Amino acid sequence: MKQLLVVDIGRTKYADAWEMQKKVFSARLEHRIGDVLLLTEHDPVFTLGKGADENHLLANESELREKKIDMFWIDRGGDVTFHGPGQIVGYPILDLNEHYQDIHRYLRDIEEMIIRTLKDYRVESGREKEFTGVWVKNEKIAALGVKVSKWITMHGFALNVGTDLSFFDRIIPCGIFHKGVTSLNNVLGSAVEIKEVHQHLIYHFSQIFSLEVKQISFEELLSLLHHHEAAIEEN
User: Scanning 78, 102, 153, 199, which has the fewest C-beta atoms within 10 Å of its C-beta?
Assistant: First the structure.
């Protein structure tokens, strides 16, 4: 089985995690690193994808400054969404040339990973025909937004575990007016440890993509990327 490097990069500002994605993408493109799954929690941030309608962001600039919420236009698909503490954000950087060249299948597989993880907590979830993401009844519990370039993936998924759902009141999540948002803690009525949910996600990810997991530290990842950057300079 091919290897998946899993790295918990901790709580991050969105801009820092985005830069890290770009570095890993570059190393993956040059075949200097294998498939990678970055896991993080972000400081509060609203992100808008390439097709986003800025009218779906209801908070104005002064409110964003007052509440110290960042905002970014980014190069993934999808509309506006929120990332913040209590939410697991996963950035798989996979070379789909080594799996399958099918973006729709990839999205369905990421959804399946989340559906299986929620089932571990006896939460029944599923898909909505018209929308990406994972739903519990009529409420969205996980959002997806990806970019694929040369069949290498960036961006990924966000699963609400203990997220402060009031942040979603300041957007129309993913441009969907008529459905709500929920979290795992909200559905269960009790708190779940983020790190515990990580392990369920990692397991199901590895099963779906037939990858052998190797969990490494953030420092180890930085060392791998340093070697990649040094090799580029030598050439």
Answer: 102
